[in-house]
């Protein structure tokens, strides 16, 4: 059995209004994380849809995971379509959570309004448009080829925006992303429809705390200001650490170009004692100050080297600055990962992009992490990439949108690559 490109692409084009409606329905479920709102609404919507298409649906709550509660259960759904005979399994995984919309929108962030061929709303790009495109792709495929061998899976998972521990990490620990159950995984993250994303940089989130000694604000000489100590840390970052990081350039094909260097972001600083209910300051010398850092690192760097770099800087301050002391608390870490360009899923999606878009694909690496980290390290499945229709730069932005034609093109790429991976026929 060989694929008819014309028939497959016509079938997907015929589903245009279905794709639009599906995307709008998903976006109108405000599955905001944190705290994890409407997860069950979203997973049940996906499950009910795919049950009607002949999928066996399983709902899994990540009980005990970070953030899980009866008020905000970490809900996940996996739908599996089984062919007439055993064979390879292709899995499309999408996260259902979206970040807060923020302010400044010109469209209602959860109305999913259409304008100029684009659907606007929080999560359209990252990544409910990709989820909808993957559903349309597999439905079109099994409608045309009901006698396929092998299996197709779709999952909607929780908490990618906060680390994925209540979603793909939990399911990976249960074996849902491990061979022999699954052979190939495509994650429809918004990396642009002509790109194959091989992996991502590493990340280390940490809290740095400087210590001081409390005293009356009118007599600061009797205390020791922890905020001033943190100021010394900031100065060392500016004069020593940031220039050093800019010199570290990766061979990974990270996009955009600025992300080819190591980086550190200061997420927040909290120092001193809180103001009273009228906003008047506490007349106290700050005895503690905390900084949250977001360090992104390269496949050429080890996590031990990354941490040692910061400890060495702080130890130098401790040796040179009177009464300086600090603590570091690890919050989160992910090792960089990158799938080989010759892996089956990479080559299959690349060929499909050439067929659909009539151009050679670009192989890229994401500046930020996504759920491939759990599939690779917990599920021990290496044949995994990200490929989706969204425009990378729109993720988490005000007036986020997804282009309808991009979703249709991506659905064709997904369907064609899934067919090849299941049948072995190019």
What would your notes on this structure say?
This protein has 426 residues and is of the alpha/beta class. The chain has 2 domains: 5-200 and 336-423, Aminopeptidase (3-Layer(aba) Sandwich), CATH 3.40.630.10; 202-334, Alpha-Beta Plaits. The chain has helices spanning 5-14, 16-27, 39-52, 124-144, 168-173, 226-246, 303-320, 344-357, 372-377, 404-423; strands at 56-61, 75-82, 89-95, 114-115, 118-120, 151-157, 184-187, 195-200, 202-211, 263-271, 288-297, 326-334, 337-338, 362-366, 384-386, 401-403. The strands form 4 sheets. The protein has a 6-stranded mixed β-sheet. It starts with a helix and ends with a helix. The model has no long low-confidence stretch (mean pLDDT 96).
Number of helices: 10
Query: How much helix, percentage-wise, in residues?
Result: 25-40%
Look at the structure and give the CATH class of the largest domain: Alpha Beta
Spans where pLDDT lies below 50 across 5 or more residues: none
Question: What are the key terms here?
Answer:
single chain; 426 residues; alpha/beta; Aminopeptidase; Alpha-Beta Plaits; 2 domains; 10 helices
Helices and strands in order, then pairings?
Blueprint: H1 5-14, H2 16-27, H3 39-52, E1 56-61, E2 75-82, E3 89-95, E4 114-115, E5 118-120, H4 124-144, E6 151-157, H5 168-173, E7 184-187, E8 195-200, E9 202-211, H6 226-246, E10 263-271, E11 288-297, H7 303-320, E12 326-334, E13 337-338, H8 344-357, E14 362-366, H9 372-377, E15 384-386, E16 401-403, H10 404-423
Parallel strand pairs: 3-6, 3-7, 7-15, 8-14
Antiparallel strand pairs: 1-2, 2-6, 4-5, 5-16, 8-13, 9-11, 9-12, 10-11
């Amino acid at each position: 059995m060989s694929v008819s490109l014309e028939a497959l692409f016509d079938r997907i084009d015929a589903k245009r209004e279905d794709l639009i409606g599906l995307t709008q329905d998903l976006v109108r479920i405000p599955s905001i994380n944190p705290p994890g709102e409407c997860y069950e609404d979203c997973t049940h919507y996906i499950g009910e849809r795919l049950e009607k298409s002949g999928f066996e649906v399983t709902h899994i709550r990540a009980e005990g995971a970070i953030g899980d509660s009866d008020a905000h259960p970490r809900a996940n759904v996996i739908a599996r379509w089984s062919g007439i005979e055993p064979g390879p399994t292709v899995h499309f995984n999408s996260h259902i959570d979206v970040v807060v919309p923020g302010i400044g929108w010109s469209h209602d962030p959860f109305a999913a309004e259409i304008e100029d061929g684009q659907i606007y709303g929080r999560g359209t790009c990252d990544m409910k448009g990709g989820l909808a495109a993957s559903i349309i792709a597999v439905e079109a495929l099994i409608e045309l080829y009901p006698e396929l061998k092998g299996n197709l899976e779709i999952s909607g998972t929780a908490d990618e925006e906060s680390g994925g521990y209540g979603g793909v990490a939990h399911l990976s620990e249960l074996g849902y992303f491990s061979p022999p159950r699954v052979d190939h995984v495509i994650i429809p993250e918004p990396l642009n429809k002509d790109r194959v994303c091989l992996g991502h940089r590493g990340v280390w989130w940490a809290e740095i705390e400087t210590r001081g000694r409390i005293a009356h604000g009118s007599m600061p000489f009797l205390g020791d200001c922890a905020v001033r100590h943190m100021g010394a840390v900031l100065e060392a970052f500016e004069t020593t650490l940031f220039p050093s990081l800019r010199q570290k350039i990766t061979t990974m094909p990270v996009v955009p170009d600025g992300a080819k260097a190591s980086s550190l972001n200061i997420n927040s600083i909290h120092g001193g004692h809180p103001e009273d209910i009228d906003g008047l300051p506490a007349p106290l010398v700050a005895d503690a100050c905390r900084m949250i850092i977001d360090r992104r690192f390269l496949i050429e760097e080890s996590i031990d080297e990354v941490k040692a770099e910061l400890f060495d800087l702080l130890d130098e301050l401790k040796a040179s600055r009177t009464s300086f002391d600090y603590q570091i608390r690890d919050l989160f870490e992910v090792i960089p990962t990158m799938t080989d360009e010759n892996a089956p899923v990479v080559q299959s999606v690349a060929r499909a992009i050439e067929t659909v878009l009539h151009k050679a694909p670009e192989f890229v690496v994401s500046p930020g992490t996504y759920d491939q980290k759990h599939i690779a390290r917990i599920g021990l499945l290496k044949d995994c990439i990200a490929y989706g229709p969204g425009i990378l730069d729109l993720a988490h932005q005000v007036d986020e949108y997804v282009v309808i034609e991009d979703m249709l093109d991506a659905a064709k790429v997904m369907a064609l690559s899934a067919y090849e991976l299941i049948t072995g026929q190019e």
